[in-house]
C-alpha cells in the first residue's frame, strides 16, 4: 500500500503528508486553497485543489486513485444547512467507491459522554455532538458500515503541537472548574506516529482511541504548559466538573505503539 491520498492538508494533514512522503510513500493531498498548492508540492505531496460544497465541484483528476484514503475533514456545518458535513462525506464516499479499498477516518473523542468515568471504544454515543452540533459517531458509520471499504477510525483527543501550544488554550481564564479532571490530549508527533503504525501494520476494520496516557490533572497540565511559555497560568476553583478519561489501551495493546509525549 504505497499510495495514500490525504483529504484535508491542514494542521495535521500537511505535516503527515510530508512525513509519509519522506518515509517512501506516494502521497496525494487536497486543499481548498489554491495558495497552498505550492506548499504541498514542496512537502513532497502531489497537490489537488478540491472543493466540497457539499458536492464535489472541482475535478478530482486521479486523487481517488490510491490504496488508502485518509479523511481529515473538520466537522463543520454551514449556516442554514444542517446536514452540510454529512453530505460532504457522502460525496466523498460516492467518489471513492470502486477506487479506494482502505480508509482512515480521523474522528474525535467528542463521541464520548462526560460521565465521570473511563471510556473505551465501545462507549461512544450518537447523542454526543461536536461544538458545531454534529453527531460524529454517525459520520464515522457512513464509512464503517459501508462494505465498499475497509475502514479504520482514529479518535484523537485534544490536538497540540506546533502553533497549538496548550499553554495558550486557557490564557486569561480564571476560577475554572474541574481542576482535578483528567486531560485527553495528543501531540502532533503521536498523531502521525499512530497513523503510520496503522498503515504499516495493515490494521483495518478497527476503531482506536488515541490519547496520551498521562495521569496529570487538568490543573497540573495547564499550569505546566503556561510555565513552559513563560506566561501567567489559568486559575482553578474547587468546583468539580463532568469529565471523561479516554483510554488508549486497545491501541497500545494491539499495535504496541508507544507514545512520544
Secondary-structure topology with pairs:
Layout: E1 3-7, H1 13-22, E2 26-31, H2 37-42, E3 46-49, E4 68-71, H3 84-96, E5 102-108, E6 117-119, H4 136-144, E7 150-156, E8 158-160, E9 185-187, H5 188-201, E10 207-210, H6 218-229, E11 244-246, H7 249-255
Parallel strand pairs: 1-2, 1-4, 2-3, 4-5, 5-7, 6-11, 7-10, 8-9
Mean pLDDT: 95
Q: For the CA atoms, what is the radius of gyration? A: 19 Å
Share in helix: 25-40%
Tell me the quaternary state.
Answer: single chain
Query: What structural class results from the helix and strand content?
Result: alpha/beta
| Major sheet description | 7 strands, parallel
Uncertain segments are none
Describe the strand arrangement of the main beta sheet, using strand numbers. Answer: 3-2-1-4-5-7-10
- Note the total helix count: 7
Overall spatial form: globular
Q: What distance lies between the first and last C-alpha atoms, to the nearest angstrom?
A: 28 Å
H/E series: EHEHEEHEEHEEEHEHEH
Query: DSSP strand (E) fraction?
Result: 15-25%
According to DSSP, the number of beta strands is: 11
Amino acid at each position: 500500500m504505497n499510495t495514500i491520498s490525504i483529504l484535508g492538508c491542514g494542521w495535521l494533514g500537511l505535516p503527515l503528508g510530508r512525513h509519509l512522503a519522506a518515509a517512501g510513500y506516494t502521497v496525494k493531498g487536497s486543499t481548498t486553497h489554491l495558495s497552498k498548492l505550492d506548499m504541498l508540492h514542496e512537502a513532497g505531496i502531489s497537490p489537488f485543489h478540491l472543493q466540497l460544497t457539499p458536492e464535489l465541484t472541482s475535478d478530482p483528476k486521479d486523487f481517488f486513485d490510491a490504496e488508502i484514503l485518509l479523511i481529515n475533514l473538520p466537522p463543520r456545518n454551514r449556516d442554514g444547512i444542517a446536514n452540510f458535513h454529512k453530505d460532504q462525506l457522502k460525496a466523498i464516499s460516492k467518489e471513492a467507491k470502486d477506487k479506494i479499498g482502505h480508509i482512515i477516518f480521523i474522528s474525535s473523542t467528542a463521541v464520548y459522554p462526560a460521565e465521570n468515568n473511563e471510556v473505551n471504544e465501545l462507549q461512544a454515543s450518537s447523542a454526543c455532538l461536536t461544538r458545531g452540533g454534529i453527531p460524529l459517531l454517525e459520520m464515522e458509520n457512513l464509512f464503517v458500515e459501508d462494505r465498499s471499504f475497509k475502514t479504520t477510525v482514529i479518535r484523537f483527543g485534544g490536538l497540540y503541537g506546533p502553533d497549538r501550544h496548550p499553554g495558550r488554550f486557557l490564557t486569561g481564564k480564571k476560577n475554572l472548574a474541574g481542576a482535578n479532571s483528567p486531560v485527553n490530549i495528543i501531540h502532533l508527533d503521536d498523531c502521525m506516529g499512530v497513523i503510520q503504525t496503522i498503515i504499516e501494520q495493515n490494521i483495518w476494520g478497527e476503531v482506536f482511541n488515541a490519547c496520551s496516557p498521562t495521569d496529570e490533572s487538568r490543573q497540573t497540565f495547564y499550569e505546566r504548559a503556561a510555565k513552559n511559555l513563560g506566561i501567567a497560568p489559568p486559575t482553578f476553583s474547587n468546583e468539580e466538573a463532568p469529565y471523561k478519561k479516554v483510554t488508549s489501551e486497545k491501541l497500545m495493546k494491539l499495535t504496541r505503539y508507544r507514545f512520544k509525549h
